[in-house]
Amino acid sequence: MLQTEGLTVRFGGHVAVDGVSCTFAPGTLTAIVGPNGAGKTTYFNLISGQIRATAGRVRLNGQDLTGLGAAERTRAGLGRAFQLTQLFPRLTVLENVRLAVQARAGEGLNLWQIWSDRRELLGRAREIVAAVALADKQDVPAAALPHGDQRKLEVAILMALEPQVFMFDEPTAGMSVDDVPVVLNLIRALKADKTKTILLVEHKMDVVRELADRIIVLHNGQLVADGEPETVIASPVVQRAYLGQDVEAEA
Fold it and tell me: b/e for 53-92, b at 16 or more Cβ within 10 A?
């Protein structure tokens, strides 16, 4: 399981994430919600290693990841999709995915060996490209894809890495109405694997209601609510947070 223990980061005098302790179990999808500036993406960055914590710990299956960088955490089993796409823009769709498949297989990048000889890994890459509905665009450079397809490609790369923990930061942001169901279906399929843990930052509450087994709420960098979706969404503390009012302790 994934754990954060007193996770904190300060930027100058500003505490962006303030002592957040939480445990995320396999077989669950946890939505992380809160108003703009609540610290959701910063919390993601602390977990995945994009930024270093001022205090606190991140553990995965008992292994302390706190001192590791983002690449080392990926190898340990944390998979992160970003709010802004992170792709190799000049490589094709298939090339982006096959590099991730190759990395997962521990092959490394061998410029002297022809990829077509590695049929098993290339076949796996094609399967994943088809799963995200990009088979007809597998030879298109990533930079030439519309935004929605770039988001689908990023999910494909994440799938190719086969992490223990999938982290999605607003996966449907900027997508067309037609593209959203494809990404949501992919997340549903990943959720069916009860050995995987999924974290989802999402502003669209209809998406949260549909996918989440659990919701945690951040406000001003602090964890202010944690529980089943219906209960958390209906709670006064969450209603006030989304209205932008100060969150006070319940009387």
Answer: beebebebeeeebbebeeeebbebbbbbbbeebebeeeeb
Two structure tokens written together for 141: 């450079």
- The pTM of this model reads 0.84
Decide the pairing of beta strands 55-60 and 63-64: antiparallel
CA distance 2 to 47: 9
Tokens of 84: 């802004």
Helix 93-104, helix 119-131: angle, nearest 10? 120
**Whose CA is closest to 62, among 2, 141, 128?**
2
- 2-242 CATH, one of 3.40.50.10320, 3.40.50.300, 3.90.1150.180, 3.30.479.30: 3.40.50.300
pLDDT tens for each residue of the chain, 251 residues long: 899 999 999 998 899 999 999 999 999 999 999 888 889 999 999 999 999 999 999 999 999 999 999 989 988 999 887 554 568 889 999 999 998 888 887 755 554 454 555 778 889 999 999 988 899 999 999 999 988 888 889 889 989 988 999 999 888 887 778 878 888 888 998 899 999 999 999 888 888 888 999 999 999 999 999 999 989 988 887 777 665 555 444 43
Domain spans in the chain, listed from the N-terminal domain onward: 2-242
